[in-house]
């Protein structure tokens, strides 16, 4: 690392280490201040949030959407400090604050040598899901995909944060070779895919998602088909501040028998149902619909239908 990157790493480590030892109740006081600062003073992406909420929930009144908006910024503050808390939280702490229902389904599949795909969204605190190895019986490897950061100091810091509970970080461009290697070695895997991001125009599927014709990542489905993996959706809820329940919902254990795109469509349907239960916990500050179907059609022209006909 360059000197500037080392400074970044040690600065983040020092600040995060100091904050993370504080009790959650103290961190939530800081979170409330951060939420007020972000929404009312800095106005961090307020227009993006309001535009997303208005287009996703046209049936709701302005008052209802403002209520969701306010709750979203409070959760965004909570998400930030809960993620900081990862730096020093113990195994017993995460087990107390995160409950995973149906984890035995993955244990059973991996014990039989099968691979698993776990599909989730930017909903509730997805960073805490990196602790899933703690809940498994240890039959194989638990992998999570990430985008390497340009600043190597920041990248090293977040890699340290996300592997505290023995998850294996794999860069997006290296995930398929890694999975193939483990499969050849007879090592079963469970891989988490956060698949609700905004992909480029080079997609093969559009789905009806939150009142939008939405371009969709199909990479998780493609990889799952290649591995003949069992596919699950992770439904997450927040019964109270600082506590999460994650429930594994089977999508399929016979993916090669399913029509192409069907697992991806099911994922987006389940994610929308999850979001509608408590909309404030989704990442509304993300410009999810910045690339439209019209842009896609203009880009591919006469080849648009062909592009959407296969994985």
Mean pLDDT over all positions: 95
Number of continuous helical runs: 12
The SSE order reads: HHHHHEHEEHEHEEEHEEHHH
Radius of gyration: 20 Å
- Please give the number of β-strands: 9
Instruction: Give the strand line-up of the largest sheet.
Output: 1-9-8-2-5-3-4
Span from first to last CA? Answer: 39 Å
How can the largest sheet be summarized? Answer: 7 strands, mixed
User: Runs with pLDDT <50, length 5+?
Assistant: none
Structural shape:
globular
Strand percent estimate? 15-25%
Helix/strand class: alpha/beta
Percent of residues in helices comes to: 40-55%
Structural commentary:
There is one protein chain. The protein has 311 residues and is an alpha/beta fold. Helix content is 47%, strand content 17%. The protein has helices spanning 3-20, 24-41, 46-56, 62-85, 91-97, 103-111, 152-162, 175-184, 219-227, 262-277, 293-300, 304-307; strands at 98-101, 116-120, 141-146, 168-171, 189-194, 206-209, 212-215, 230-240, 243-252. The strands form two sheets. Strands 1-9-8-2-5-3-4 form a seven-stranded mixed β-sheet. A two-stranded antiparallel sheet has the order 6-7. A hairpin with a 2-residue loop joins strand 8 and strand 9. Helix 1 packs parallel to helix 7 (152-162), helix 2 crosses helix 4 (62-85) and helix 3 crosses helix 4. The longest helix has 24 residues, at 62-85. The radius of gyration is 20 Å and the shape is globular. The mean pLDDT is 95.
């Amino acid at each position: 690392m360059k000197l500037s990157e080392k400074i970044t790493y040690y600065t983040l480590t020092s600040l995060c280490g100091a904050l993370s030892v504080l009790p959650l109740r103290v961190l939530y006081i800081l979170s409330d201040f951060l939420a007020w600062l972000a929404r009312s003073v800095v106005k961090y992406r307020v227009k993006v949030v309001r535009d997303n909420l208005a287009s996703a929930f046209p049936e709701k009144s302005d008052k209802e959407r403002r209520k969701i908006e306010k709750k979203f910024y409070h959760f965004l503050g909570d998400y930030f400090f809960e993620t900081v808390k990862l730096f020093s939280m113990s195994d017993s702490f995460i087990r107390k604050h995160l409950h995973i229902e149906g984890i035995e389904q993955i244990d059973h599949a991996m014990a039989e040598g099968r691979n698993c795909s776990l599909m989730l969204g930017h909903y509730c605190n997805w960073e805490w899901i990196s602790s899933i190895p703690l809940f498994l019986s240890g039959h194989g490897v638990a992998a999570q995909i990430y985008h390497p950061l340009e600043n190597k100091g920041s990248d090293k810091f977040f890699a340290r944060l996300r592997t505290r509970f023995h998850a294996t970080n794999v860069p997006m461009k290296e995930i398929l070779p890694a999975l193939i290697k483990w499969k050849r070695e007879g090592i079963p895997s469970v891989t988490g895919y956060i698949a609700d991001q905004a992909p480029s125009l080079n997609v093969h599927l559009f789905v009806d998602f939150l009142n939008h014709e939405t371009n969709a990542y199909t990479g998780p489905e493609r990889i799952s088909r290649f591995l003949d993996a069992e596919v699950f959706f992770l439904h997450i809820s927040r019964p109270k501040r600082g506590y999460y329940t994650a429930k594994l919902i089977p999508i399929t254990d016979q993916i090669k028998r399913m029509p192409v795109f069907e697992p991806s469509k099911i994922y987006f349907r389940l994610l929308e149902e999850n979001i509608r239960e408590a909309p404030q916990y989704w990442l509304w500050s993300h410009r999810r619909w910045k690339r439209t179907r019209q842009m896609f059609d203009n880009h591919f022209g006469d080849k648009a239908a062909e592009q959407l006909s296969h994985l």
